[in-house]
Amino acid sequence: MATEKARQGGGDGGAGRWPGRRAVLVGGAAAAAGGAVLWRGELSRLWWRLPGDQRPRVAGAVDFAGARWVAASSANYRRADRPDDYAVDRVVVHVTQGSYTSAVKAFEDPGHQAAAHYIVRADGRVTQMIRELDVAFHAGNREYNERSVGIEHEGFVEKAASFTDAMYAASARLTARICARYAIPVDRAHIIGHVEVPGTDHTDPGPHWDWDRYLRLVLRERTART
């Protein structure tokens, strides 16, 4: 399950982050105008030019059709403007080591200091808790948090029965959409387990996660949509 031991990649509030491309454009335009005052109406029409972390968000909007929206605590992610400020080139597979309900409760808790973008239930239902625009604190490594989408799976690494047909199918559809959106190759170099993140002390998704099966399903979904 996503966690931020030693707060790696965690709640830095964006410290050290270079401004996104749109932020530079907007700032440069303002400077060139010599400090001229823009009318309120003009400002309202320029909201879409702001960096994504300042752009208005639609409450309950999801990035994966059919997902249920449940908001994670804002302490468990950082607002961003991906992929403009951070290129997204990884999907990280997690296992919750508990029930779906316990995972949602943890990600809603500001003291948990971690959350993934998605949770896939044993019955195949998908919940999104953080927008893909934003940096979720899920991998225990700041660079990997910034460049990846994290997907939790309900269950336990030591129980093969946790990983149902419905879960594999739903997760593969989700990962295929993410790969299509960011042009991520469907391979084991770009779709990885939490255990493979540098510096992590986690073992998920564990020995019972069928990577060959999963990659076949993701590739089939990806190919069907091209």
UniProtKB/TrEMBL annotation:
InterPro entries: Amidase/PGRP_sf (IPR036505), Amidase_domain (IPR002502), NAMLAA_amidase_2 (IPR051206). It holds the Pfam family Amidase_2. The keyword Signal does not apply. Residues 77-206 form the N-acetylmuramoyl-L-alanine amidase domain. The keyword Cell wall biogenesis/degradation applies. It catalyses: Hydrolyzes the link between N-acetylmuramoyl residues and L-amino acid residues in certain cell-wall glycopeptides. Its EC number is 3.5.1.28. Keywords: Cell wall biogenesis/degradation, Hydrolase. One of its GO terms (molecular function) is N-acetylmuramoyl-L-alanine amidase activity. This is N-acetylmuramoyl-L-alanine amidase. It comes from Streptomyces andamanensis. The lineage of its organism: Bacteria, Bacillati, Actinomycetota, Actinomycetes, Kitasatosporales.
